[in-house]
Design a protein that fits this description.
Helix content: 40-55%
Number of domains: 1
Mean pLDDT: 87
Radius of gyration: 22 Å
Largest sheet: 2 strands, antiparallel
Number of strands: 2
Order of helices and strands: HEEH
Structural class: mainly alpha
Shape: elongated
Low-confidence stretches: none
Length: 91
């Protein structure tokens, strides 16, 4: 008889999480249907933020430039400004 450790909740080692596997499959199917619509809605917002920041703040660098990137993420750096100062001014 094989017993699993505490990470297996005492069940036999190697017990598969069937509910989790089925849930992940369903989530992937939903993402395949809805992701293009979400991308089409969110990417323009990211681009608007990027261009707005570039217009009002000098020396803004976009990491990754115009390369393909996730629609919900804008990674930018500001020259001559320390990260701590940015955090303090966010409030």
């Amino acid at each position: 008889m094989l017993r699993g450790g505490h990470q297996e909740r005492g069940r036999r080692a190697g017990t598969e999480n069937i509910a989790g596997i089925v849930g992940m499959g369903s989530a992937c199917e939903l993402a395949e249907v809805h992701l293009p619509m979400i991308t089409a809605a969110v990417a323009p917002l990211r681009d608007r933020l990027q261009h707005g920041l570039a217009q009002i703040i000098p020396n803004v660098m976009v990491m990754g430039g115009e390369q393909p990137r996730t629609p919900n993420t804008l990674n930018i750096a500001f020259e001559f400004i320390e990260g701590e100062a940015i955090l303090l001014l966010l409030n």
